[in-house]
Amino acid sequence: MSSILESAKGIIKEAREFAYLGKYPEAIMKFKSQIDTLSQQLPKNQGDQLLYQEWSKLVNDLKEELDLTQILFDFTKGNPNSQQQPSPQKPKVVQECPEFHEDNRQPRLPFNQIPFQHHQRENTSPRSKANQFQISPPKQKPQDPDEIFFGGLRGGNDGKKPNSNNNNNNNNNGNNINQNSSNYFYNNNNNNNNNNYNKRPTNNNPPAKDPDVWDPPSKKADKPKQSQKDQKSNNIFKAQAQQPQQKNNQRREYDKPWKNNAVGEKKPVEGQRKTFHDHVYPDGRGPDSDLIQMIEREVLDLTPNVSFEQIAELELAKDTLQEAVLLPIFMPQIFTGIRRPCKGVLLFGPPGTGKTMLAKAVATTGKTTFFNVSACTLASKWKGESEKLVRLLFEMAKFYAPSTIFFDEIDALGSKRGDNDGDSARKVKTQMLIEMDGVSGAASSGEERKTVMCLAATNRPWDLDEALIRRLERRIYIPLPSDTGRKLLFEINLNSLKLSPNINWDQLVKKCEGYSGADIANVCREASMLPMRRKLKEEGGFQKLQQKYEDISNVVDVPLEQKDFDEALKIVNKSVSTEYLKEYENWMKDFGAG
Ligand SMILES: Nc1ncnc2c1ncn2[C@@H]1O[C@H](COP(=O)(O)OP(=O)(O)OP(=O)(O)O)[C@@H](O)[C@H]1O
């Protein structure tokens, strides 16, 4: 039976070739004869299920193809009234006879009838694949290059892009029945949902245009297409050409208050002292502007506001500082020659004993400009520029003289020089030594006096470089407070608080032995909070107290009692280790110069 099927397929192929060549009557005849032959054979072969199915499918397909061929035949005869519609079902022509696709068919049409087809091939470039996942924003109509393209070149379809159906079908030209009837057989990938089957051309209506078949290029399209970028730049040039001097003529002149603080625009206010930056860079900007501004911002302390009275005890240190620092500032004419002021003063001792306070008190009393330099700031923040920073610092101090430069924790900057020192650290130390010599040199020469006093503080004097120690000519030990000093510290710290008369101060001072000034300040701070906390607890919390009293500040401001200090002493311990105290005393014996 399969041989019958094979010979049938051969005849069907011939029928299809006739149809393809437009010989519809021959094709119809062949189709009909094969349908008859196969239909007669069909009932005898029901035993073989597979063969039967293939057989009956072929018969059905042939009937469909016969119908379609009949329609085309009617159509070419000019019989538009034929009621028979082509089945939207996909013809099996190409699937079963792929050789029909081999494109040796085109020359069989007259050349001027060959449609110029825009075959949009699947773009397999990586870029286009990536673009598939991008959602592009809606484009404005005139800027859409595709629309220009379609509108200019395609002519048909009103310059619009083909509808989405066509796009989905990969712009396959087979969606429409073309006037060239044989093209019907090109519709091998035809979509089942294609409505264009209904748009068969009639004598009255113009034939429907295939959006994928281009019309001949219009004149507009002949022009070389200008890219959007070129258009844009052309517009800019045009605009500039039309208004050549507008920008220069219409310089916007108005107040720019936000620029007042900016470097380069700052104008010195009348009566106000010129800054160092303005002095060195009158034009507003220079190579070291950033460093100078950093010093002005972070190092320059214009309001130290500490008086010697606020500092408990330390009378020896106060006297030394007054003599070594303040007197030369107030009476510079006397301190010349052998009486020249010292190059610098070192304050050393345990932490929290008032060294910084002393330096600030000197600056406040002497009305000098105070530079509070943290060695760490110099060493770490401006890596590679530290030595320049040191130079600028001293230049600034001279400019603002009389000045006090206070180097806190100087051991971090001026430790003993050794083989392990980095290049930068060595340069900084050297620069410091040079500058310290420079300030005292200025004072001893006949030129205009620029009193710049260097004060330094450290908890580890034994780590300091000897050359630096030599330049810090006065070295003052700032010890832990004595009994008297601790009592004074309590008085200074508590002078604004209400105190119970029952406090045993002597006992308290004894209990605080070994405490530094900073530790005692902490004890007082803690003790001052305890009666307030107690009161708030008694009254049931802050909110209840607020509801009960109009002004609660008087209610919670309860006098401090002995038990508050006892409690505070349990919380705050001393911060200075006694083992170091001996070392300070030893170093004082060896290097002290108070
Ligand atoms: N002699 C003092 N008189 C008054 N207050 C003091 C005294 N000593 C320390 N204090 C208190 O301790 C705090 C810290 O003092 P200061 O910063 O001067 O100590 P320091 O010796 O410089 O400490 P460090 O060595 O850690 O820098 C001060 O704010 C002050 O409350």
Automatic annotation (TrEMBL):
Q: Where is the composition biased (Basic and acidic residues)?
A: 209-232, 250-268
Q: Does the keyword Isomerase apply?
A: yes
Q: What is its EC number?
A: 5.6.1.1
Where does it primarily localize?
A: cytoplasm
Enumerate the Gene Ontology biological process terms: microtubule severing
Q: Provide the AAA+ ATPase domain boundaries.
A: 341-482
Reactions listed under catalytic activity = n ATP + n H2O + a microtubule = n ADP + n phosphate + (n+1) alpha/beta tubulin heterodimers
**Keyword vocabulary terms for this entry:** ATP-binding, Cytoplasm, Cytoskeleton, Isomerase, Microtubule, Nucleotide-binding
Binding-site residues for ATP, renumbered to this chain: G349, P350, P351, G352, T353, G354, K355, T356
- One GO term describing the cellular component: cytoplasm
Kindly name one Pfam family recorded for this protein. Answer: AAA
Bias class Low complexity marks the residues at 79-95, 163-205, 238-248
Key word Nucleotide-binding present in the record?
A: yes
GO terms for MF = ATP binding; ATP hydrolysis activity; microtubule binding; microtubule severing ATPase activity
Could you say which protein family the record assigns here? Belongs to the AAA ATPase family. Katanin p60 subunit A1 subfamily.
Entries under HAMAP family matching the protein: Katanin_p60_A1
Question: What protein does this entry describe?
Answer: Katanin p60 ATPase-containing subunit A1
Species of origin reads: Paramecium pentaurelia
